[in-house]
């Protein structure tokens, strides 16, 4: 795949990162953040979390620029040796598989709660994975083009949802600013930063970029767009429902959307339209993670790509069905968040330090 003449442009890289970040967090971020912060200052935590994501993106792009045209699966054995690189790669592949399974299960839980209450959740997940495999089997460039088509639709719909819900927002619910001090804000940095997880996709994506030197700029723009949308959503949800109520709701964003039909009489069950667009959003993130896991196995074992796509289907399904209930789904999300810290933060920084030491040693020799 690296030898293809087709390359990912700056705009495509920005779109891919934005669509990879935006996903399940649209409906879960307000509740998770409210549980940790317990004050209306969640938006401040998000800004700080966005700054951390930018720093992580800097380290990742610096690392990948030293191995142009190579994914982390290919250059990690060069830096740390065959077996240590194999362990790193296996951990990263496992992370992408878990994320794909988590996204499939979260999507199915929302559909069961609001639309398909009598449909077995197993059927929903199987159909979701099957449709994902249909596009993943075509490779990275087909996926990128699909994300380009979905991006403006998702962006316009989210902004429309926020515009329609503005009449329900009471900005008094967002005050006082820093009323509980700065400690609650610091507690909210971790969940908000994890909601912006997706920058680790650059560990693979940069190998296919046409202008890899602009990768940092594309990453900054992509993170900013996702962060801006998330902040608007959190402000709308907290402003309409208050922090105390949001902490008690499973899907607070959907509760906000349900209130829109009371104000806009021409739209009945507006949440149905929202869920459809939200499923598209989670689907784009799902297929990217599915692809990264399949590509990783293909490059680690140096075998054809397509058999691994089909071979991962049962593993993604088992990951999706592992949680017993919705609380188990949220716990799985917490575990994945901790893994994201390792994949996006610790491993790239460690490899960058090793690359720097080796470069200095080679210069002396």
TrEMBL record:
Q: Name one GO biological process term.
A: spore germination
- Where are the membrane-spanning stretches? 9-30, 42-65, 86-104, 124-144, 149-169, 189-208, 220-243, 272-292, 304-323, 335-357
**Topology relative to the membrane:** Multi-pass membrane protein
Q: Where does the protein end up?
A: Membrane
Keyword Transmembrane helix assigned: yes
Sorted keywords for this record are:
Germination, Membrane, Transmembrane, Transmembrane helix, Transport
**Similarity comment:** Belongs to the amino acid-polyamine-organocation (APC) superfamily. Spore germination protein (SGP) (TC 2.A.3.9) family.
Q: Which Gene3D superfamilies match?
A: Amino acid/polyamine transporter I
Which InterPro entries does the UniProt record give? Spore_GerAB (IPR004761)
- Which Pfam family, an example, fits this chain? Spore_permease
GO cellular component, alphabetical, reads: membrane
Major localization class:
membrane
- State what protein this is by name: Spore germination protein
**Does Transport count among this protein's keywords?**
yes
